[in-house]
Design a protein that fits this description.
inorganic pyrophosphatase (n-terminal core); binds manganese (II) ion; Diaminopimelate Epimerase, Chain A, domain 1; single chain; 2 domains; six-stranded parallel beta sheet; about 20% strand; about 350 residues
Length: about 350
């Protein structure tokens, strides 16, 4: 794995460049926070910077400074294609394989621009010219902080940069409680507050925006929760009909999987969400300790992620997907019961 070469990047950024910053498809708080944090930093260096998201993101991220300047590839394809074809540098943030950029995959892989990856997921693809990959990091936002710091520009972390990076670290660490949260993470968070991130306001903006329907959907998910104590496993299902009944909007199911993991004596939690439009079942897996849901997802559910948090998908029905999940648990019996 390459470590990013800061000296080369520093000289690359020493003259005005056209720069595109791209988060992964279906961007979350860390993806939007890191792209906007980097955007506010690069704008101060007088580069010509654009953030292009492959698609739309949830409404609870639509308060971040600079958010209204984000272009969306799926609805603004022409302008986004032109910009991507005519750029000097492309930063890809919070993902490490081009297929994670969804419909932007082919335009990104064809581009001759210098590519710089900043990411904390496992097993990065070798597409970039510069790779800053570190799976021990809590979030890509923590890495963007380090990146700016390594470039010697810590003083350019203004309230806008600080706010975006704080939001991404907070969401990717489950408000600083996941095992990836280190003392270094807290030191960075402290510095971001000193530099103008309003921590309590950011928390409210992200977490206190529930609609009545969203809470009803959560109630439905929790009543569907099943526990398999012999495998220290809990799982939740949500069918398309249930999503429709509660007027599902993008982001409404975010975090629901963690309720399974909050049960006493549970090591593995899963949620299976039917998506009839895409014709797939979306899967989120969470675990405690050394049990790797990244491995499980890579082996069985066409996905991956981190040791304790991974995503995946299935093209079978909801029922078949759950059956498959239950059928593979015996092969993980020792690992689950040794936690
Ligand atoms: Mn992340």
């Amino acid at each position: 794995m390459n470590k990013v070469n800061i000296t080369d990047i520093k000289s690359l950024l020493s003259s005005k460049k056209k720069i595109i910053i791209v988060p992964h498809k279906n961007p979350d708080g860390d993806a939007i926070g890191s792209t906007l944090g980097l955007y506010h930093y690069l704008c101060q260096l007088n580069h010509d910077v654009k953030v292009i998201s492959p698609n739309e993101y949830p409404h609870f991220l639509k308060w971040m400074p600079g958010e209204n300047s984000i272009l969306k590839y799926d609805t603004q394809t022409e302008v986004c294609s032109t910009l991507t074809q005519d750029t000097d540098i492309i930063f890809t943030l919070d993902f490490n394989a081009l297929h994670r950029a969804g419909n932007m995959e082919s335009i990104l892989s064809k581009s001759e621009a210098i590519k710089i990856m900043i990411d904390h997921h496992q097993a990065p693809d070798p597409y970039p010219n510069f790779t800053y990959s570190d799976v021990s990091m809590s979030s890509t936002c923590e890495m963007v902080y380090n990146f700016i710091d390594m470039l010697g520009d810590n003083e350019l972390i203004n309230p806008d940069v600080a706010t975006c990076l704080y939001a991404g670290i907070m969401t990717d660490t489950g408000s600083f409680r996941f095992p990836c949260t280190t003392s270094k993470t807290h030191r960075i968070i402290a510095d971001l507050i000193d530099k103008g991130a309003k921590n309590s306001e950011i928390h409210n903006n992200i977490y206190d925006t529930n609609s009545y329907q969203k809470l009803q959907l959560l109630g439905c998910a929790l009543s569907n929760l099943k526990v398999l104590p012999e495998y220290k496993t809990a799982y939740i299902t949500l069918s398309q009909d249930e999503l429709n009944k509660f007027d599902y909007k993008k982001g409404d199911t975010e975090g629901i999987v963690n309720y399974g993991l909050s049960l006493n004596n549970i090591v593995l939690a899963a949620i299976f969400i039917e998506d009839k439009q895409e014709g797939i079942i979306k899967i989120s897996l969470r675990s405690k300790g050394d049990f790797s849901v990244n491995d499980m997802s890579r082996s069985y559910f066409n996905g991956g992620g981190h040791i304790n948090a991974a995503g995946g998908r299935s093209e079978s029905t909801l029922e078949e997907t759950v059956e498959k999940f239950i059928s593979i648990l015996p092969s993980y019996n020792n690992a689950l019961n040794n936690e």
